[in-house]
Amino acid sequence: QVQLVESGGGLVEAGGSLRLSCVASGIKFSDYHVRWFRQAPGKSREFVALVTTEETTNYRDNVKGRFTVSRDNAKNTAYLQMNFLKPEDTAVYSCYAYTLRGTNYSGRGTQVTVSP
Questions:
Q1: CA geometry: angle at 82 spanning 111 and 17, to 5°?
Q2: The pLDDT of residue 53
Q3: 22-41 b/e with 16+ CB inside 10 Å = b?
Q4: What are phi and psi of 85, to 5 degrees?
Q5: DSSP 46-107
Q6: Confidence at residue 91, expressed as pLDDT on a 0 to 100 scale
Q7: How far is CA 94 from each of CA 39, 114, 116, rounded to the nearest angstrom?
Q8: Residue 33 near residue 103, CB atoms below 8 Å
Q9: What are the residue ranges in the chain where pLDDT is below 70?
Q10: What is the spatial distance between Cα 70 and Cα 79, in angstroms, rounded to a whole number?
């Protein structure tokens, strides 16, 4: 059974930091690209960051310089380090593992709340 489980969310003051983890099981994690998404109440889900199988990274513009995505294939885990958090970063963050062949899996997400 394939599972993606996010953790590390919580309540933090503006300017603070959190590190999210996405642990995969049931797949050969190193074969999968991983995207992080977020969805705030009343808003559409939006792309946050990507780490490819080759560890190439990409970010949405308003998190560049604040967020860092990474992966540790030995631990079947992807990370999203979030620094200098802002209230507008408040959302449910989820990870999405996929291959270019079309196989994909999503986690349920973890809540991040940033207070002013």
A1: 85
A2: 98
A3: bbbeebebeebbbbbbbeee
A4: -65, 150
A5: EEEEEE-TT--EEE-GGGTTTEEEEEEGGGTEEEEEE-S--GGG-EEEEEEEE-TTS-EEE-
A6: 98
A7: 8, 16, 23
A8: no
A9: none
A10: 5
The 3-state DSSP composition of the chain as helix, strand, coil percent (nearest 5) reads 10, 55, 35
Two tokens at 104? 């994909």
The answer to whether 59 touches 69, Cβ cutoff 8 Å, is: yes
Residues 6+ apart with CB under 8 A from 28: none
Cα 22 to chain centroid distance, Å, stands at: 7
Residue in 75, 34, 66, 63 with CA at minimum distance from that of residue 51:
34
Distance between CA atoms of residues 45 and 94, nearest Å: 10
Paired sense of beta strands 110-115 and 10-13, if any? parallel
Pairing of strands 46-51, 57-59: antiparallel
Task: Give 104's strand partners.
Answer: 98
Q: Which two tokens stand for residue 111?
A: 């809540």
